[in-house]
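Translate sequence into structure tokens.
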Amino acid sequence: MTVTYKLTIRTSAKLGSGTNAEIGVSMVGTKGESEKYKLDKRFHNDFEAGSEGVYDIQTRDLGELLLLRFTNAGGGLAGDWLLDSVHVTAGEKRWYFPYFRWVVSGSTAEVLEGTARLPQHARNEREASARGEQLESRKALYVWRPAEATAQLPGALDISKERPLPKDERYRGLTDGSYEAVFAKTMAAIKLHMPVLANAWNGLVDIFDVFKRIELPRIAQRWQDDYEFARQAVQGISPVHIQSITALPEGLPLTDSELRGLLSPGTSLEQALAAKRVFLLDFEILEDIAMYRHVNKDGVEEQRWAPASRCLLYLDDTRQLRPIAIQLGRDPAQDPVFTPNDAEHDWLAAKIYVRCSEGNTHQMVGHALRTHFVAEPFVMATMRNLPDPHPVYKLMRRHFRYTLAINEGARQGLLAEGGVFDAFIATGGPDKGHLQLGKKGFVRWKLADNKPRPDIERRGVLDPAVLPHYPYRDDALPLWDAIEEYVGDVLRHFYKSDADLVNDPEMQAWWADLTERGLPVEKLPCTQLTRVADLVDMLATVIFTVSVQHAAVNYLQYEHYAFVPNAPLCMRQPPPRTKGVLGPNDIAEMIPSKSQTLWQVAIGRALSSFGEDEEFLLHEGGWREEYFQEPELVAIRERFHERLRAQLAAVKARNAKSDAPYTVLQADKIPCGITI
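Result follows.
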């Protein structure tokens, strides 16, 4: 019996997605395989970017379709083809084939039918073999970096001249959206105005001239204010350090007399601590980390500093935080404690050093390590062990888009010897202090640390009665709850019991690969993957990390760092150890030089930008790349989006009444994954 199959083929709308190559297709079903058909309409330019073409194929009854095999004959400049998806109908029967990947020139790609299935539920041997064949081809593309190359760090993709980044992981058709393009445009805009800057550089004054052609960060007019300094601890670029304390840290000598007028009338420091009105920012992780030190060819030595500083904040009678004490080191014999009662420039310098400490910790630990690099092993394990029909692949794939690309870009452009961080960050340079810092952070880290509620509770700031104004907490927790429910609903739709997970050979291979090459098992919440609850916990944490947490620690970089005196990423003088000797000229000599400032402004702007094809957690019109079509899964997704809409409404309502809105954790502004 002859059957007419109608194929509706959608080509991605990304620039460069279309092809002029000859495309052929054969169909494989439960009753056999068709011959190959050339897909070519007369007087029609097939497979243009953004197009949807319909092709009728008459062949014998193939039963239930299992896969479509596309061949790309190649040739010419536009040979590669970015295939989004295919819908096939035959009478009342319908099949969906999501792909969202490249069919490279001169290659063949098997696109598996899109119904999500666990491997043990494959309908026949041909379907099972197709899953295995897809994984074998992926493993040749996604190869782990040798263990010695990632010692004391998460596992990563091995990239070389012979084995470049897989094309499916590269940025697609970006003209203005890649960080390199934004960086170049920012530097060009600044340099156009450079002639107005004097050769002598007073960063506290001349910094405003940098912003003649680019936007001035809002904090520029209030950066010296104590309340603004404290605000950044709860809704700035690194809002995960503040902790409630009931006793002074060891080695931080502070008396009531030094705090005269800074606490509520009649309140002693001991009483303030007992009442949970004192909070700590502590960057002790910087202790013993190598700082930049280099002697140039003329024998001139350059040094940079980011001390292991700490700061006490006080919740005053207006229920607002403000800083009351800062120590720029750990030795009470040589590191004095500064307070607002000290000389104006002493106190301002102390705050600047704290922000520098925070910035170096943030860039390498809170940002690079705890979002970018801990996500990479999960991308690798998924691409190597889970074929397209696996529900976990379908759940996670959108959250991994471009992560391998930006991580490799960061390694080569920012972190490598001679890279951007060597140019201006305190822990950069020949001694690789920034890498020491990342490794030190990884030794201390576990995946559970990325779960927001336990982390916030551990720091003693979960209760709004203790810390009333904490926008990061109040915005992140509803997002975590929505993600956890979403992931749990999806996984439990497929895994009806723990036995289903134990008997899933693809997920067991995923776990073995992850723990052998990606992350030590002690970093994970279980030693064996035998409980669905553990899988829900891990995958929810990964999605939260690459979306919500990355947004929190990434997209305020321009606002936070670009006005460099607010948060310099290096200091050019050692922390002061004597009070009462600093003046404004001394502070200008402490903060970054002109060239270091330009680097910091440009990088901050580039890393705060969205790609032109960004896909957000709550995306207008729905997600562009949709992997699930089953009605039950569509309903789960819609419940997730309803929770995100409620979160968005609450955030907008609060921000409407705020003088300093916190917008990076609005559900419609959070990218699904780490794309920059």
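Note: The longest strand covers residues 93-103.
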